[in-house]
Amino acid sequence: MFQKRIFSGVQPSGNLTLGNYLGALRNFAKLQNDFECIFCMVDLHAITVWQDPKEMARQTLEVAAGMIASGIDPTRNILFNQSRNPDHAQLAWIFNCVARVGWLNRMTQFKEKAGKDRENASVGLYVYPNLMAADILVYKATHVPVGDDQKQHLELTRDIAQKFNNDYAAELFPITEPLIFGAATRVMSLRDGTKKMSKSDPSDQSRINMNDGPDAIADKIRRARTDPHPMPDNVAGLEDRPEAANLIGIYAALSDRTREEIVTEFAGAQFSAFKTKLTDLAVSVLGPIGSSMQRLMADPAELDRILDRGAVKARELSAPVLDEVYRTVGFLKS
Ligand code: AMP
Ligand code: TRP
Fold first, then answer.
1. Does the pTM of the predicted model rise above 0.85?
2. Are residues 62 and 167 in the same domain?
3. Is 186 close to ligand 1, i.e. is its CB under 6 Å away?
């Protein structure tokens, strides 16, 4: 009953990381042949944590450049920045009235991001998942490719769609399916194998940025935390070895092979030898992407035009949905 449609978002809140690439962007590029796709730089989400206004525009264009450099074709897909289509924020308000406080209280990302000083977190950070549900459902998107960390938010999106449909006795929204695939759906920090690799980590050594040069990549991988044992000879041997598991997962994802194959290839090897190979591989994949990002960033006006055109197309799709929602809720409409 619902047309297959993909939506996904990336926050323009800093450098894109290898986690963004392996968990999200690379998968977006793989899906563009089979689905109608909408990819969004979610600037409204980014400001749930303070962002320097002088940096916002550049960061937004950089995420767009990262998407295009990862193989996403802006002529076949819709690329735009979220704030350019006000329909997201309007539907988000309605979802603020559908979602329950108890549901949001269970969100682990809020707890992590708010930290100990929860009283001081922005209200936007708390209702962030409602806006995310609006991003998706304002297009009636049926499939959402994301990294593993977004699973809980997508469950909330499904709960919101279901409750809205029940409360208003309308089959208005689809129950969206997450698409979480690849050998590295959760890339971990290079400094701590139990923490997610993140663009907002204060330590740049904890992550590989998509536009890092060969020297930075080599240095970060060389200094990545490991344990004193050689590589295991089967995947079960990665249990309780988070750093080894992370590096093997990265290697597998970058080479489009399975973790089993990589473990077999490097069974018994020392980390130093493995790290040299991993560096070569990472440089061979990220090098061309970084250069392409740099070329695209040299013409910010063209990137801005792409996002502007994308926003017009996005609004053509969302306006009738928002209209239908307003009528369903009982709002007077001209
Ligand atoms: P964000 O940078 O938080 O806006 O995330 C954008 C996309 O990248 C989402 O689909 C995330 O799930 C994905 N992502 C971010 N960090 C990682 C990571 N460390 N491993 C895998 N996927 C990630
Ligand atoms: N919350 C997502 C993240 O931090 C970004 C995001 C916002 C998103 N809206 C979305 C992802 C809609 C998928 C669909 O990674």
1. yes
2. yes
3. yes
